[in-house]
Input
Amino acid sequence: MNVPPLTPVPVLQGEPSPGRGSIPTPALVGGLFSRRQIRSITDGFTRLVIKTGGISIILCILGMCVFLVKEVIPLFLPPQATPVESITLSPLERPATPALAGIDEHQELAYVLRGDLLDFVFLAEETSAISRIPQQGLLPGGSVTALARAFGKGHSLAMGTDDGRVIPVAIDFVQDFQGDERSITPSVTVGTPILAAPSPQAISRLAYQSTDSEVRYAALLRDQHLWLNTVRTVSRPDGTVSASTAQVDLTPDISGRVTAVALASRAELLAVGTEEGQVYHFDLRDETKPVLTETTQSSERGQAITALAYLMGDRSLVVGDAAGQVVVWMPVREHAATNVTHMTPIHRLASHQNAVTDITISQRDKGFITTDSTGEIRLHHSTSEQTLLTLTPQQGAFRNTYFSPKADGLVSVTEHDRLIRYHIANPYPEITLATLFFPVMYEGYERPELVWQSSSGSDDFEAKFSLTPLIFGTIKGTVYAVLLAVPLAVLAAIYTSMFMHPDYRAKIKPTIEIMAALPTVVLGFLAGLWFAPVLERNFPAMTGMVLVTPFAIALSAGLFLVLPASLRHRIRPGVEALLMMPVIIAVVWGCLETNAWWDALLFDGHYKSWLEKTLGLNYDQRNAIVVGVAMGFAIIPIIYSISEEALTNVPKNLIAGSLALGATRWQTLLYLVLISASPGIFSALMIGIGRAVGETMIVLMATGNTPIMDWSLFNGFRTLSANIAVEIPEAPHGGTLYRTLFLAGLLLFVATFLLNTIAELIRQRLREKYSQF
Amino acid sequence: MKEWLRQFMASGELFIWGCGAGLSLSLFMIAGLMVLILINGMGYFWPADLVELTLKDGKHVIGQLAGEDVSPKGIPRIRMKIGNRDLYGLDYRWINADQIVERATPADLVMVERREWGNFYGRLKAILKEDQVVTEGAEDVWKALSPLLSDTEATEGLNPYSVLLVEANGKEKVLAFDQVLRVLRPNDLSTLEKVWVYMGNIWTVLTTEPREANTEGGIFPAIFGTVMMVMIMSFIVTPSGVIGALYLREYARQGVIVRTVRIAVNNLAGVPSIVFGVFGLGFFVYGVGGTIDALWFSEKLPTPTFGTGGILWASLTLALLTVPVVIVATEEGLAAVPREYREGSIGLGATKWETIWKVVLPTALPGILTGLILAMARAAGEVAPLMLTGVVKLAPAMPIDGTWPFIHLDRKFMHLGFHIYDVGFQSPNVEAAKPMVFVTTLVLIAVVVTLNLTGIVLRNRMRRKYAGSTV
Output
């Protein structure tokens, strides 16, 4: 048999190396490589494979964190606006003509209404075609002195003329599919003119809304009279259509020159701003009797109100004034017991340097765009109270600006008759660190609050993404679980490592390890469906158990000590735990049997009403106690194993020394073992907390999952983890909810990673310390 | 006395007993939980006697006893499973003991298992063939029934027969044969026969598909899904875990970086499973799956093929979740290989790879196996990440079947753990579903505990084997 060389250093040639001529050359395999070569090639190859494989696997695992961060970051990126087009329109003869701009939801076809001239601009990548429909203008006679747009679905506009007429104009975009090609054709419907006031005069300002059955507008005439008009059409079953008109002069309620008028999208609210900075709020639900609900001084320095707009949802009113201030006002209830509300300034947004000329709202969220007299554009979001973008296109002032239907672009028509368009990438306007973690003033609330509510039935609902209640729930669940688990687990660990008879120790550890392997879904199911009802029925007895157990322990210890010595010595040392077993069973059984007695003794016979009367607490069936017990159960094994390890590893010679010097078992434990093992027990606690923080199934199944913030033992909560499990299946990919849930996941990741790292470092140091002995 | 008390406190005996009580309490909780699941899970299969109660108001109740307790007013009462959900609307009923006049177990009571509405408890009256009475009288019907029923199974077509049943108070119910699964007379069965039925029931649950929103029937698809998912995961996790550990222990230069990486990998085992689920959804399902769809299944879009949850993504997610377990256990195994073995191998001229392949890995095999088994146990019990990556309450098709390409990794699947959550918390009739949940729990725990015990035994054996060697 050939003896291979002793060194694993690869020998690349099959020829005998100099000086070793006596060693026979290994036979060539296949005539190409020697066996030795193949072996060394294999060795090098596997080294390469394992190195690259190992590194990539480890990178893969660690890459998780990077991926989570990558998914979360877009939430906090500032929005982007890119100018796309700037198109010159045909010049007009009269410079001060009112104008409106608009665009379809795909941003393919824009329109500009200047006076009565309606231009459609087909936006193509290279050249944009402009066509005027109809060529001679929309009006056969008279000239347009005011324009207004109805916010909401579709594009309905209105023109006010110098002879006091209001003419509705509806623009539709008809989509046509030919194969995969989509083409859009505009259609224009001009409605019948309506007289704005009994005595015709030129209209200087107009606010307009139309719904399926009615048209409502407020027209300010040249004589400073503000007329509210409602035209209601009723279609009868027999096919006839009748129209009723209500006309009311609002001027007697208003003092001062009117400078801005706005109608809410359902046309039930009207806001009128004056030169003195006052805003008059009208309730229009009865069209014949508009009610002035409130007058507010909306501009501090008595500046004229120059622009008004209701945000989506018809609750918040954006007020812009001549000094450039932009403030969002909301109706806020005086206190919880009333329905009386007062308009209150809630969100102050970044001011313009000059007078605000126009406010256009988003049809998607609580965002809006303001423009000022020098042609600066700002994009704001009301709830998150942030000004997202400031654009200065340097094109002169704007006649009108429009926020595209999907809130992803804007078009403006300038005073120099140019149409400019921006693409806006602003997917997450409602998310800031402040809205995620601090109280936010939402519409309809009395004060800033922390709310998680991601969806609701109604259309104009605003999702509320505060992570604080969920973090609170996570902490609450963890605290209650730890309160139960730590004493039990640490006591059990102390007992097993210090006092227990070694014969039993070998059997106890695997049992506890099995407990660690129990799927948490099982614990959650038992907690929710078995323990919760049992606890509800036997709450007084359970309270009794907690009270009785310490006495039972003391009693058994005392009894054992007063046993005659002859009897006592027959029992092996280290079996206290076994002797306690029947005592515990007796306590549990005894308390359950005397449930009614405990109820009478502690809670006047009915614990639920007692809790409500004395402590003001409601008892929910699935409450924090249930979760505490189930989650405590889940983390007992891990805390037990790690503390047991720490306690067992305390060097035996130290313990022997202490006992030999005359200390009792208890003193040795208290003054030596516990102190040296305390870092280990602390790290056990950290790891236990880490487990409890991320536990999902137990909290999902054993609480009501209501995101409330309340330390009460008797109600439920919602944790970050359960929230992810509940909400992410419904969250659209890449949306705000989706990314917020990723953020929740990232928080969990970071928290547990930190806890575990601290624990691991402590354990390593402890091991090093012990190794000195 | 005072002196004695002082001594008693000072000796610390009290606290030692307190520690003992802590351990007892923990053990008591585990034992209680196991007993609870065992009793409830196993009890479900037992064909318990049907009891007929005659009440004070002259009414009769037929059902199976399902517990006793004392009502809030202090009257002892019993809980009956009364079945006949289509007639009564509820499955269980409490009856106060003082209302019961007579309690009997007549032999002619039947329990009919059917496809809908849960069990029927009552008596047989007649067999009908297209509305014509063919056989009448409880005994005759009972005798004629089983051959006709087995006929149904053979023909599998429309069965013209139906059976006329009577509930406790004489209300009649006609049941077509194709609705009937089995008719039993539990009171007529001997203990041995009951054991036979009991075994049969266990077999049925383990091998058949669920019925009635998962609350009846079997859990075979869930068992199959769990096993298959764990197997796919093992295929992925074993090589990657072993390669990772080999790199860390054998090839990487031991230093601060490797130590940090080791701690990080260790800690990943403690990162909540839901976070892995979130990652799996974002990376595997939407990221990788979405890309695969865009590249190869674009003709089916917008219906996703791989861009939605499926067994492959669930397995990959769980592999990621459990790979730290395998790495840690394998490293432990590699570290436990005595130094002399390596030195001997190298000394005899083997290359590094040969040493690893022929000496180190075989010696460390128990460690690797332990890691793998613990990983499998953890994977079998995890539910939260699966809920995001492809588990469903009712999978229309198995991940393996007879249509090309036989193994469908893109399909959604059922899982025992999710079955527990779904049946126990999402089904419309939780009370009726509870026994099924207990059975599922029992099966899941059996799987997980068996896997864990194997792992623990293997590890202890390995530790003992190398306890003497210098590590």
User: Anything to note?
Assistant: The first strand of chain B starts at residue 51 and ends at 55.
